[in-house]
Amino acid sequence: MNWLTNFVRPKFQRLVAPREVPENLWHRCTICGHMVFHRDLEAALNVCPHCGHHLRLKVKARLQMLFDDGLYQRIELPKVADDPLKFKDQKKYIDRLKDARTKTGETDAIIVAHGRMGGQAVVVAGFNFDFQGGSMGVAVGEGLVAAAELAVVQDAALIVIPASGGARMQEGILSLMQMARSTVAVDKVKEKRLPYIVLLTDPTTGGVSASFAMLGDIAIAEPGAVIGFAGARVIETTIREKLPEGFQKAEYLLEHGMVDMVVPRRDLRDTMIRVVSLLRNRSPAAPVVPLPIDAPDPEVAGA
């Protein structure tokens, strides 16, 4: 009996017991509902292979996708006060910051990196939506200023990739001031005649879209990205009218002239390289050949 209880039964139970499958191995597409294996999703750059829906992409994966050989160098961002207003709602702001830093391993919602893209020098400021919804506070403003200054020093194109819910309410007026600071920083890049390109991802809203995100020399958007200022429901409630189908989506903005192109994620790197090359190439596309000056016709000259 002991042999059956201690040996046979446990072995049989292990054989028939359901195996535990980690939850993060499969991801459900929010549009078509299909389950996609995590490795297949990573290989497709977080684009659903069934319907083509562009799921949000982690900022580090995006940087690795854009830079040559996935290599880039991050810069250390200026230090700022963590909680300048001593803000507290249901939870202290300083505690929210600690939770976000523990979750993401980052100090704030922006990463500034520089490297090569198609052999060309570029500086990229990418937003991390996982850090408090990519909201823009003083630290993010400092990051944008640092990115602009680095682009000027390195004579490089500046690429900004917003993914944000807007200004960070816990920093109040200090957060709103970053709209003006980031705009001034962009102007410094443009004064040096350096390319400033914005890659609009899902979502780009609030004070971010009302400042630097809409000032690019070229505005590129990912398919299906939500881009706007106020939310669609807020607008509908305010104007008391039904909004058009696809309002605030990238394709709608392209149709109405708010963005220059909508590019699938698999084509983004090649498109960005081509755009930067066109904006940086200040010389003629081909050698300039002087046209021969014909001698005047004697009959015409005699007349």
UniProtKB/TrEMBL annotation:
Its cofactor is Zn(2+). It comes from Magnetospirillum fulvum MGU-K5. Pathway: Lipid metabolism; malonyl-CoA biosynthesis; malonyl-CoA from acetyl-CoA: step 1/1. GO terms for molecular function: acetyl-CoA carboxylase activity; ATP binding; carboxyl- or carbamoyltransferase activity; zinc ion binding. Keywords: ATP-binding, Cytoplasm, Fatty acid biosynthesis, Fatty acid metabolism, Lipid biosynthesis, Lipid metabolism, Metal-binding, Nucleotide-binding, Transferase, Zinc, Zinc-finger. This is Acetyl-coenzyme A carboxylase carboxyl transferase subunit beta. GO terms for cellular component: acetate CoA-transferase complex. Component of the acetyl coenzyme A carboxylase (ACC) complex. Biotin carboxylase (BC) catalyzes the carboxylation of biotin on its carrier protein (BCCP) and then the CO(2) group is transferred by the transcarboxylase to acetyl-CoA to form malonyl-CoA. Acetyl-CoA carboxylase is a heterohexamer composed of biotin carboxyl carrier protein (AccB), biotin carboxylase (AccC) and two subunits each of ACCase subunit alpha (AccA) and ACCase subunit beta (AccD). A zinc finger (C4-type) spans 29-51. InterPro entries: AcCoA_carboxyl_beta, Acetyl_CoA_COase_Trfase_b_su, ClpP/crotonase-like_dom_sf, COA_CT_N, Znf-ACC. Binds 1 zinc ion per subunit. GO terms for biological process: fatty acid biosynthetic process; malonyl-CoA biosynthetic process. Residues 25-294 form the CoA carboxyltransferase N-terminal domain. Belongs to the AccD/PCCB family. It is found in: Cytoplasm. Its EC number is 2.1.3.15. It catalyses: N(6)-carboxybiotinyl-L-lysyl-[protein] + acetyl-CoA = N(6)-biotinyl-L-lysyl-[protein] + malonyl-CoA. It holds the Pfam family Carboxyl_trans. It is an enzyme of class 2 (transferase). It comes from the Bacteria. Zn(2+) binds at residues 29, 32, 48, 51.
